[in-house]
Amino acid sequence: MPEPTEKVKKIDKERILHIEKLLSKIRIKPQTLNDYLICEEIGDQEVRLFHTASRGTFWSSCAQYGSSSKNTPTHSSSIVIDETGKNYGQDYLHTTRNYICLADGHGYSGERYSCFTGIYLPTFINKDYIISQLSQGGSDNFKLIFNHLFNVCFKMDKEIKKYQYINDTVCCESQPIERALFKNKLGPKSGTTLCYSSIYCLVDRQGLKRRFIVSLNVGDSETYSVWRYPCGKVRVKVHSGSHSVENIDESQRIINRYKSKMLNVLPIYGRFNSYDKKGLLQAPFPKEVIHHIDNIPNQRTFPIYTVDSNYKVTVNLETLHKIYMALGKYGEMFNIDQWYGGIQSLRTNVIEKNVDGVWKGIAPVPDGKPVNNGSTPAGLCQTTRSFGDFHNKHIHFNPHVNIVEIPDDVHVTLICQSDGFGDTVHLSEVADTINKLPINIHNQAESIKKELVKLMHNKIIGQNIRGFGLDNNFKPKWDDVSIGIIDSPSLHFQE
Hints:
single chain, 495 residues, alpha+beta, Phosphatase 2c, domain 1, 2 domains, 9-stranded mixed sheet, 6-stranded mixed sheet, 24 strands, 28% helix
């Protein structure tokens, strides 16, 4: 009897068509996919060179935006003057045509820490020294720049410790900013993140120009640059490091340092079922979805990582999947489909399904990354690096630093943002928004700012149930929001 080959082929074809039909109704969230495609992380102490130069004109413009619904404490009302930046609640921001300095404070005296670091750190940076080393351009010269930036942060830490408990009567009469800052003490149990990024344009003896971005960050505020190429292509370079336990390298560092007291700093999802120093339960996991996380005790924390006998950490993929699925099911009770990708921000990464013409999240993207849950070391401070926070021994101030050369034909937009803005948008959405504007236009920073603020407002429409909304004065209710922008057209562009 002949083999029923035709029948097998027919069955296979039907199955393939069925699979194709199913796949046409499932997708990775477009913003997530675009982030994967166009965003690139620049590592700590990494140098990217392109060795391109031009006789064209160097030009830059700058803009900044900030907003806060919080009433700023009385003692900080006069901290900042226009020449040195501005505070928006506990965010501090100073943007010039050459550099951006952004600090996001937290704790009782958070705005004082952010303003202090934001005002003083740029004064510690020796710009002439950096230019000199960039001009020489050897690997040893770049290391010297990194050492200089580390020493700047070390000096900043010393200054904070010096003034943390200053007496109200002690102030320097020749420093009006200092007098304003230290009208009250900095105070304990507070701290701040910090981003500092600058564009340097070098000119050699032949008049050829090269552009470099030099960046440092401490904490979870972001620095990135949007590159627009003459061909219409757009890319994003992320210059900042992610200093939280959702970064496996940060978790490994903490575990290595506290091997004997590992349980006191064990990275967990959010603060679920953890206890504060007073013994009070923090963030009990929603009882409505406990049954979705079988075999995980519901009165214990949910560790992100498995730690082996050599203290090596690896993501526990089973717990990761169960937590995301449980939170996603919890979100569905409130008609929220994006909690499959985490609950901290609107910047979620999910798999979506087309249901009656509407794309809805149905599962997390299985990339093995435990992000967007505001995770902590055993319920402590969320950021793993900051200035201040001396009561959290696992925190230090070592910066993430790098140097990136900008090709001469690229129109670059450098951005520093607090997580108040970053929690509302994907980086690819920022890039797409900027890319819609004309390329190689002078003084474009203000236009970029307006479009990004509009993007943020459009993203939070209808998101009040998730905590993202505006008060009656159109101030953000979810967090302090700040964003600094430097825009630099191609060196090929002439005015």
